[in-house]
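For the sake of transparency, this paper describes our internal protein records without simplification. The record that follows is passed on verbatim for readers who wish to inspect the format:
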Amino acid sequence: MTASPSKSPSNLPPGNFGLPFLGETLKFFSDPSFASKRHAEFGPVFKTRLLGSPTIFIKGPEGNRFILSGENETFQISWPPSVKKLLGPLSLALQSGHTHLARRKLLVQAFQPRALAGYIPAMEAISDRYFQRWLDHCQHGDDLTWYPELRDYTLDIACKLLIGLDNGAQTRLGHLFETWCAGLFSIPLNLPWTAFGKAWRNRKGLLDEIERLIRDRQALMQAEPDRPETDALDIMINARDEETGEQLGLEELKDQVLLLLFAGHETLTSAIASFCLLTAQHPEVMAKARAEQEQFAGQPLTLDVLKQMTYLDQVIKEVMRVVPPVGGGFRQVLKDCEFGGFTIPKGWSALYQINSTHSDADVFPNPKDFDPERFSPERAEDKAKPFSHLPFGGGLRECLGKEFARLEMRIFAARLLREYQWTLTPGQDLSMVVVPTPKPRDGLKVRFEKVGD
C-alpha cells in the first residue's frame, strides 16, 4: 500500500482526542494496554491526541511497511518534545534526509564486523567481573535484585567500548546519565522537581564529561598518530564524510556520543533482563539452550562461533518478539495520505507499532506462547510477511547499533548459560513497567548460582 493524496480530508480514522492539548497522553504513558484496548474498540487504525499533537496509530506488518517505507517522502522522524530537547539538536536520532544518511554512514563504521570482533574481549571481561560480583552477593543466601545490576553492566560495556571509560556506571558520568535517562520520556515541564527538569540539568553535566573525554582523546591521537583505533570514539573522531571529507565537530560529537550511550544501554538492559526472566520461566527452553552451549565448550566466542549458535539466536529473537525493548516509533506526516481507507492529514503524528505487530496472531500464531522454534528455518514465521519482526525498527532508520546489541546479548547469554543458573524469587511482581523501556516491576529478584553448586 502506498501513500497518495487524500481526496476526503474528513475521512479520519475512528478514535477519541481526549482532553484539550494533553489528549490521552497520561493514559498512553501509564497504561501498557493503551494501544491494544483501542485497537480492540476501533480496529487496526485509530486516532488520538498525544502531547498536543493529533496522532494516528497503525497496526500490523502492512502498516509498518507503509510508514517505514515512506521515510523522508510521506513521513519524517519525530520524537516527543522531552526526547528532542534531551537528545540535542545535532543527534542522529533527530536528523533527517541527506544529513541523516551522511551521518549514519560515518557512525556505522563503529559497528562493522572488524570493529565488533575487537569488542569481544572487553565484553567477556566485563561479563566475568559482573558474574563474580553476583555470585559473591548471593553466597550468604541473599537474593539478587538483578535489573539495576544489569543496568550497570550494560552501561559499563557501553562506556568502555564507545568512549573508553572504565567502570562507567560508578563514575560521575554514569550517575548523571541515569537521571538523564529517567526524564527522556516525560512531560517536558522544566521545574526543579520534575523528571524532565532534573534530566535537563544533568544533560549539561553529561556533555561537559563527554567533552572532556573527547578532548583528552584528541590530544592522545595527536601525540600518538599511529595508535590503533580501540573504540567507537576513536572511529568517530577519525571518520570523514565520503563526499565532503569533513569530520564531526565537537558539538556534534557530543550529541552523537550521548545518543550512542543511550542506544547501547537502555534498550539492551531491557532485552537482557527479558532474556533472563523468560528463560527462567521456561526451563525447557533454558535446558535446550544450555545443551547447545555444551557443543561449543572450550571454543572462544568469536563472531563465527557465535553465528553457529542457532538455537540461542532463536531464543533471543523470541525474547525480543515477546518483550520488544521499543514498542514503536513516531513519525510526522509530511503530506496528506491514505491507509486502510482512512485519511492521514499532513502535520499529524503517526505511530508504527512493534508491540502490536509482535502479538498479532495472524502474524505469529499463538502469540502468547514463548516458542523460540517459531524462528527455526522450518517455520520462519518472521519471514512470511515483511516488517513483522521489528525489535530494532526498520527501513532507513533501523537501529544503527543493531549488531553491537546482538553481539552483547549473545556473549552475555552464552557465558551465562555455560556457567551459571538462576531461579526467580517467589512472590515478586513480574509485570512490566513499559516506559521508557520494559522492565519487571519489582526489579527481577533471583537466586544466582554457579552451575553444579
Summary: The chain is about 45% helix and 10% strand. The first helix runs from residue 25 to 30. Residues 1-8 have pLDDT under 50 and may be disordered.
